[in-house]
Amino acid sequence: MTKTTIYYGPSTTINLFHSKMDSEKSSFEQGCIRWRWKSKDNSSNIEQDYRWKQHADIENRMIEHAYQQGNDQVELDDFTIDFRSGIQISKRDSQEQYEIKRQIGLSDISNRVRVDRFVVEEAHCIEKSFYSSPRSFMNAILFYEGRAGPERVLKAIAGIREVGALLGKAMQAECLANDFQETYGIYWSREDEIMDQVIRLYTMDSFLYKFINYFMRNADITTGEFENERDKMYGQLLGPYYSLLQESFHRRRSEVDILLYRSANVTDDMIEEYKQYVGKDITWISFSSSSKIKAVALLYDGNTLFQIYVPKHPDTQNADVSSLSHFPEEEEVVFDHQTCFTVKKIDYDQILRKHIIHLDITDYGARFRK
């Protein structure tokens, strides 16, 4: 029987990390296979790599899985890919069609890292007083974390599905939730495996990590509670997964002296703002990804590089997740939300043509979150 379309819905179980896709996974972990689509503004007939955009890695895996299964098409949240015609068709407008291509054996590191993951979303300074804060996001969302053990895991899985559906990413959510559920089914008695899987889901380039951080930055919180019904709803859905994620990060705290890097596009006013904060402490509200490799952060064509010194300290709130990532060459280290930094100095590198903002992580972040 001819295979036609694979649809990633509740009836489809795809495991992104275990035996069903082991051969595919090994290629992906090395960054060997990438699906790309040609951006709309390409008017020239001259084909050059920079004109092609990469699919998000969760979409990349879903596309490759369907391709390996011999299907003619694969339907995802925002588009359908027709392998026979080599095109990607928008669900919003069927006339929106883009050429696609499959690339194998990519060696350039720029093809094997996700540049936007190491970009500061909000670079504004936020002055901190180091007291227990009634406005803390953690205080608000942990109200919904649920009981420990199996109940919290199952609520986290259900929450991923529901948030994905609300955001129009039901198919991505189903893939993530199915994999989490299968991991839990296999390793239900091994807490370390479950916690590692929680981080793996976060390291995927999907709606999940993007929305959690967006929610942290934008939720309205007063006296330790979400102010509006929308935020309460998302807090209830994400609370169980968030609490598992934070616990997982704390288990992987990196207690070594290290320099980390993160990029940004910063306005002149914001540069002046940082200069006013030299010698003072600031905080980044959401989870923040950084890299141990300067070259990875420099792949983003921003005007500013954050160079972050992390001293060895038992209370340091950063987790090395590189061993669990599908992109180990990124050497990703994640800062906990509301991590505090001291602004040491700001200078300008004439060779790189970038502002360099030097930060030192402090142990005050642990005090602030208590």
UniProtKB/TrEMBL annotation:
<dbReference type="GO" id="GO:0005576">
    <property type="term" value="C:extracellular region"/>
</dbReference>
<dbReference type="Pfam" id="PF02825">
    <property type="entry name" value="WWE"/>
</dbReference>
<dbReference type="InterPro" id="IPR003540">
    <property type="entry name" value="ADP-ribosyltransferase"/>
</dbReference>
<feature type="domain" description="WWE">
    <location>
        <begin position="21"/>
        <end position="102"/>
    </location>
</feature>
<dbReference type="InterPro" id="IPR004170">
    <property type="entry name" value="WWE_dom"/>
</dbReference>
<dbReference type="InterPro" id="IPR037197">
    <property type="entry name" value="WWE_dom_sf"/>
</dbReference>
<protein>
    <recommendedName>
        <fullName>WWE domain-containing protein</fullName>
    </recommendedName>
</protein>
<dbReference type="Pfam" id="PF03496">
    <property type="entry name" value="ADPrib_exo_Tox"/>
</dbReference>
